[in-house]
Amino acid sequence: MASAAVRLPSLNMPPKHPAVSPSVATKTRKSYSRKNEEAHKILADWGLSLQDNSLPFEGHICAPETIIFGSQEVAGSQLADWGRESSREKVIMPVDLMPRRWLVIFSPRDQECARNFCNMMRTVGRSIGIQVGEPLMVQLHDDRTESYVVTLKQQYHSQLYNHFQKE
According to the UniProt record, where is the region Disordered (predicted)? Predict the structure, then answer.
């Protein structure tokens, strides 16, 4: 049975689709399509095929935008990548995650990932000006989708009930 659990990615891993130049992308596509008979068959089943040449066209390239953070402005790049700055600069209007007012639901085998995720949230939160309190940690008995849905509904209704009891 396939697992419905979501794996938390490592923050040290490179992106799955790094930016590559059009010429590199075209060369990779050509190389893959020539070598892969299965790809040819799948395309042929749909009445499709790939040509060896690409259709060149001119496009408009916009100037990079300035990204405004709470503490400074950062010049954008041609790659539109400001991930590093977004995890270091203070946000304009922080919204703190109060203790036990946010929820992490995880399966038994993902307990360590959930703990690492919470630690990462506190670390990044501190650097961008958001206080991150301890979450309500809810471990499921299994990783079935239904278990996540039922637990989320229970926790939501419980939090909603507690909120109105305080007023």
Answer: 1-33
d(CA 96, CA 122) in angstroms, rounded, equals 11
101 and 85 share a domain?
Answer: no
User: What is the three-class DSSP state of 136?
Assistant: strand
What is the rounded CA–CA span in Å between residue 91 and residue 111?
30
Residue 51: pLDDT band (50, 70, 90) is confident
Q: Which domain holds residue 82?
A: 65-92
Highest mean pLDDT among 9-13, 37-41, 157-161: 37-41
With 70 as the cut, is the pLDDT of residue 163 above it?
no
Average pLDDT over residues 41-66: 80
- Local structure of 49: helix, strand or coil: coil
Task: Domain count for the chain, please give it.
Answer: 3
69's tokens: 């953070």
Q: Are 97 and 130 in contact (CB under 8 A)?
A: yes
Mean pLDDT value across residues 55-74: 81
Are residues 128 and 84 part of one domain? Answer: no
DSSP label of 62: P
